[in-house]
Amino acid sequence: MMMLAMQVLQQIFWQLGTLLYAPVFWLTVFLVFLQARQRAKQKQEMFQLRREPVGKIVIVTVAAGLMGGMLASALLLLLGVTLDKIGLEYLWMIALLLLLVRQRFLCFAYSGGILAVCNCLWGWPHLDCAQLLATVAVLHCTEAFLVLTTGHLNALPIYLQNGRQQITGGFLLQMVWPLPLVMLMGLSGAATLPQAGFMLMPDWWPVLGALQGQQPTALYMLAPVLAALGYSDLVVRHRMKEKIRQSAFLLLLYSMILLLLVLLTQHSRFGLLLPAFFAPLGHEAVIWYGKRRALQHDGPFTAPERGVLILDVQQGSPAARAGLRSADWIFQLDGKPVENRQQFLQQQYILPAMVQVGYVRRGRRKRCRIQMGRWSQPGIITAPDAQCHIYWSLEEDSGLAKLIYKKLAKTLKKR
Q1: Which strand (E) or helix (H) includes residue 375?
Q2: CA–CA distance, 371 with 375 (Å, rounded to integer)
Q3: pTM score above 0.70
């Protein structure tokens, strides 16, 4: 069994390596770079900071995507999901149509659920519902892993208004991971066994049995497939690590429940309606729970009565080198008390070459020294106070059709 597992992992690793030479893979990496650069530009313009380098973020994001691809490929092979039975072309077609309604509907949880319901009720399109819904579960399990490990990267600090019309600090999380996969491709017409690379699978494989009495394909080949996973969230009521853990747990719970429902109902055509409906509805529940009352209560990043609270620290800045980090409360600069945010913003541009900072972290008073070097400011983004009049506007999740309509209307109005 161990030998078989090593052979399978070796084949996965080999097939994933072939994708590294594909131009479409590097196109996806370029899109990751563009997103990271856009975030750095927004951060620079909003808080008048130096432009942060994005090379490290891109490298870590791509490396995490490769590890996620290994995980997803192993799970898909374990379950016995075959590429030719999940209706990939229909999946993308419906997902793109849903994108016209809402941007967040560009997710296989919605298009996969719709396809599965249509197949269970009317037998169209021709696909294996169990394998399709299992693929949705595996992708969201992989997303949970990626969110937990690298979901905090490229976070954009923002000021926003809560339900009580108060300005509070938060973070906008948006990530895209390239996800190279290795999936099975059925060779139902093969008459002879291959002479090389042939592996005998155990009797319990595949975990997903054939649906509607169809016999499983005897021979398979491994096919590399490039996909991408996206993640978007808002951190307001929680600290960053707490929110990341919560989001990862909800995604993992959703994927486990969906996969369990698939395994329990895989041999019943109408029984599969249960996981088919759960796929989109459960995903909506995850989003609703994650954002429930997000803007109705004060978050941890509201301005204190005295001093300043750090919302974020710029990478590589003097404050970062001194060890300051998010949620630290600065009450003193060079022995002088910090009265409020406005005073700090004015004073940060006239700091000496070395300044001693008094701050509180988790109820304990600490001190550090900031060496300014060639920096004109320490690189600290403070939590907002009542004097902030510029804040992030959380617009409704509009579909692509509405955005195109607004753009055309605006263009025609100018004429």
Answers
A1: none
A2: 9
A3: yes
